[in-house]
């Protein structure tokens, strides 16, 4: 391969960055590298996180009054996307041990109007995803992981 992408590579230097800027078809190369790195078949690159969160939320076909639980410590793009989709953001307190939502706090906020939980990982820290998966399965909710701030991080070696 012409270019090795630098996911958490401390040896990535300026010349590699400039080489990447001037290659042909960077989107095609980045897509191929992400597919390998993430071991996924389908990757959709968008120009911003705003576009990504909007695309995901709009495709859930939320109805007026549906609730989406999100962290109280989150980028304003997320509640804006929820409101634009016609749903209602419900803010959840963060846990004592970090800046991520606390699973116990989330459970207290679930109502018969709750449809989605958006779990945003903040400052590269991972929340205990297994607890959130269990909550969503028990309550028939969609779980969206927002990994914008922790790309490449692992939870229990996954």
Task: Give the key terms.
158 residues, alpha/beta, 4-stranded parallel β-sheet
Description of the structure:
There is one protein chain. Helices cover 36% and strands 14% of the residues. By secondary structure, it is an alpha/beta fold. It has a 4-stranded parallel beta sheet with strand order 2-1-3-4, with helices on both faces. It starts with 13 loop residues before the first helix and ends in a 12-residue tail after the last strand.
How would you name the oligomeric state of the polypeptide chains in this document? Answer: single chain
Helix content: 25-40%
* Strand fraction: 5-15%
Q: How many beta-strand runs?
A: 4
Strand order of the largest sheet: 2-1-3-4
**Protein structure class:** alpha/beta
Mean pLDDT: 83
The string of secondary-structure elements, in order, is HHHEHEHEHE
Cα-to-Cα separation, first versus last residue: 26 Å
Question: How would you sum up the major sheet?
Answer: 4 strands, parallel
Low-confidence stretches: none
The count of helical stretches stands at: 6
Query: What is the alpha-carbon Rg in Å?
Result: 18 Å
Label the overall shape.
Answer: globular
Describe the protein's topology.
Layout: H1 14-21, H2 26-38, H3 49-58, E1 67-71, H4 77-84, E2 88-92, H5 103-109, E3 114-120, H6 129-139, E4 142-146
Parallel strand pairs: 1-2, 1-3, 3-4
């Amino acid at each position: 391969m012409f270019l090795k992408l630098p996911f958490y590579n401390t040896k990535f230097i300026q010349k590699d960055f400039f080489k990447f800027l001037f290659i042909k078809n960077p989107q095609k190369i980045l897509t191929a590298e992400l597919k390998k790195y993430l071991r996924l078949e389908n990757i959709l690159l968008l120009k911003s996180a705003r576009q990504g969160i909007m695309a995901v939320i709009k495709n859930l076909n939320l109805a007026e009054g549906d609730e989406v639980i999100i962290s109280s410590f989150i980028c304003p793009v997320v509640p804006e996307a929820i409101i634009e989709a016609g749903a209602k953001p419900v803010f959840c307190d963060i846990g004592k041990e970090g800046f991520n939502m606390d699973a116990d706090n989330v459970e207290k906020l679930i109502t018969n109007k709750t449809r989605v939980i958006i779990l945003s990982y903040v400052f590269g820290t991972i929340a205990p995803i297994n607890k959130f998966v269990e909550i969503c399965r028990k309550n028939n909710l969609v779980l969206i992981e927002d990994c914008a701030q922790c790309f490449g991080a692992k939870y229990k070696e996954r």
